[in-house]
Write a structure and sequence with these properties.
The chain is mainly alpha-helical and 356 residues long. It has helices spanning 17-29, 32-42, 50-74, 83-86, 94-118, 124-160, 175-202, 208-235, 247-268, 275-305, 313-336, 344-355. The protein has a single domain (9-343), classed as Formate dehydrogenase/DMSO reductase domain (Formate dehydrogenase/DMSO reductase fold, Up-down Bundle). The chain is built from 12 helices and no strands. InterPro entries: NrfD-like.
């Protein structure tokens, strides 16, 4: 019966919730992997972020695999999800490039995460193989960073074909770089959220000092993107649109105030040295990214295209269920592979014993 039997999709809005949320939003939620891996292996003192990186890359792997499952449903003929890889495609299409980048990045994430499994094994040959993998892992990380910068920016390129038909509140001549930069900020912001929830649930230390070092970078990136977006609107003579009373304007202001101004204020202030402050700033950064992509995918296009679209109940339930599933799978890996939590778990237990 086609996707129309289970979704609210139609010819005027062929990309609905499953594409915009389950792909365009979910992919940057997995940006923790390449951002934290870069910090771990290519910045001074990066070894301090070892266990943050372990949780970041396992979360990234889960999110990317989740996106693949969601996309299999979205394309309507699930077994054709491998066609861009095995049969080729349009070399000029951003979607073709995204498909290849995600496929190759999943291989990189496999090698980044397999070491966690190897650490749980006692066989000598496994230990030897793991030692060799650690030596070459920075090379995989570098490839992963390259692939990530390509497909995160290409997610923005997907919408640039609409040009100035897009609502001026979200039109940007370099929307691909806006998407890339907000993905980088989201990678660090999502890490603050993950660490807050993980530390509370598993009773481990929250790395306030390490995450506080990332906070100014998140705030700085968001400040640059906000200034760039406003500057682009001013250059196009559209800055007055932010004061026109309409629904789109209200959504734009909500995105800017909650997703940019608020996290910038929190993460540049002394609140970044507290767990609550980091969690709030990180969560608002993530929500700002989600708002940007939902607005670009829906709000900025529906009026221009004269589109009518309301997600169906199955669409909403599938997206909510798939998102909840990623959290369940993450907790399973953390509890199955203690090396993801690291020695801090045992240190916390020792401190509690001393206190008792």
């Amino acid at each position: 019966m086609g996707l129309g039997a289970a979704t609210g999709l139609n010819d005027s809005m062929p990309w609905g919730l499953w594409k915009i949320y389950d792909v365009v939003v979910v992919v940057p939620l997995g940006a923790t992997g390449f951002v934290m891996a870069f910090i771990r292996y290519f910045t001074p003192g990066g070894e301090r972020y070892e266990y943050l990186n372990r949780r970041a890359v396992i979360w990234a792997a889960i999110m990317y695999l989740s996106m693949g499952v969601r996309l299999a449903f979205d394309i309507g003929i699930p077994w054709r999800i491998i066609y861009p890889i095995v049969r080729g495609g349009n070399l000029h299409s951003p979607l073709f490039e995204i498909a290849w980048c995600v496929f190759l990045y999943l291989i990189v994430l496999f090698f980044e995460n397999i070491s966690r499994v190897a650490e749980e094994q006692k066989r000598p040959w496994v230990k030897k193989a793991d030692h060799l993998l650690h030596k070459i892992l920075p090379g995989f990380v570098l490839v992963g960073v390259m692939l990530s910068t390509m497909h995160h920016s290409s997610l923005g390129t997907l919408f640039m074909i609409t040009g100035k038909r897009m609502d001026p509140l979200w039109y940007h001549p370099w929307l691909n770089y806006v998407f890339l930069l907000t993905s980088i900020a989201t990678g660090m912001g999502m890490m603050m959220v993950i660490e807050h929830l993980t530390s509370r649930y598993y009773k481990i230390k929250f790395e306030t000092d390490l995450l506080a070092r990332l906070a100014p970078w998140v705030a700085g990136i968001l400040s640059f993107v906000l200034a760039w977006r406003l500057g682009a609107m001013a250059a196009e003579g559209q800055i007055g649109q932010i004061f026109v009373p309409r629904v789109e304007t209200a959504l734009w202001w909500a995105e800017i105030l909650l997703g940019y101004v608020a996290p910038i204020a929190i993460l540049f202030s002394r609140a970044r040295f507290t767990q609550k402050g980091l969690f709030a700033g990180g969560l608002l950064t993530v929500l700002g990214m989600i708002a940007l992509r939902l607005n670009v995918g829906f709000t900025a296009l529906m009026d221009a295209l004269g589109a009518q679209y309301t997600p169906s109940v199955p669409e909403i339930l599938f997206s909510v269920g798939a998102t909840a599933g990623t959290v369940v799978i993450y907790t399973w890996f953390v509890e199955t592979l203690p090396s993801i939590l690291g020695p801090r778990e045992r240190e916390t237990e020792g401190l509690e014993a001393v206190g008792d």
